[in-house]
Amino acid sequence: MNNLPIIVTILTFLIFTNPIMTQNTRSAKEAKGLEAGVNAPDFIATVINGNNFSLKDALTEGPVVLVFYRGHWCPVCNKHLGVLQDSLQYIQNMGAKVIAISPEKPELLAKTTEKTGADFTILYDEGYRISDAYDVTFTPGGMDRTMYNTFLGANLKEAHSDDSQRLPIPATFVIGQDGKIAWRHFDPDYKKRSTVSEILDALSKMN
After folding, report:
1. For residue range 35-46, what is the model confidence (pLDDT) as tens digits?
2. Cβ(91)–Cβ(203) under 8 Å?
3. Using CA atoms, how far apart are residues 203 and 189, in angstroms rounded to an integer?
4. Which of 184, 97, 95 is nearest to 135 (CA)?
5. Are strands 52-54 and 44-47 parallel, antiparallel or unpaired?
6. 137, pLDDT greater than 60
7. This model's pTM is above 0.70
8. What does the alpha-carbon distance between residue 175 and residue 170 come to, in Å, rounded to a whole number?
9. Per-residue DSSP letter, 42
10. Which of the 8 DSSP states describes residue 11?
11. What is the per-residue pLDDT across 184-200, written as a single tens digit (0 to 9) for each?
């Protein structure tokens, strides 16, 4: 019996699915994030209240400070978003909007608002479409997933649109009205976040 057609089919499947599998299982250090100077991928995403947010439309009004965060269960994320909220007026005075985005479902985004007092827009990144486009998605290791799910109550399989348990590196991108990334903060170490002074400095250089 000639098994060659079956072998060819299997090899073809492995070749074409391997990049997807690799992307879905890569570590934080393998994610690179989009660089400053490139065009920011446009997107439309769901806000907590169910309305849609369009990056393209938002940029007609001014620059956008796009902040990826892991979820309401992340103490470092909540602290970071809380700091941004405390200084929100300074950022808005520069003509910019703060937009935070997470792979958590809309009903869980509300918990972030409750914990941080955030008065800025928070978006649901369904299917990791936006974090993939900005090259910040990764899969945490097994021990980390256990800690997040067990001790921090992340419940990643239920909280996200699939059970891959992927997360975004908590990066910050300052996007100008020309649609280009003017500045970014990108660090695989989740404890290191953008500061308000850095964001304000980036915005000041755009004026």
Report:
1. 999 999 999 999
2. yes
3. 24
4. 184
5. antiparallel
6. yes
7. yes
8. 16
9. P
10. H
11. 999 999 999 999 999 99
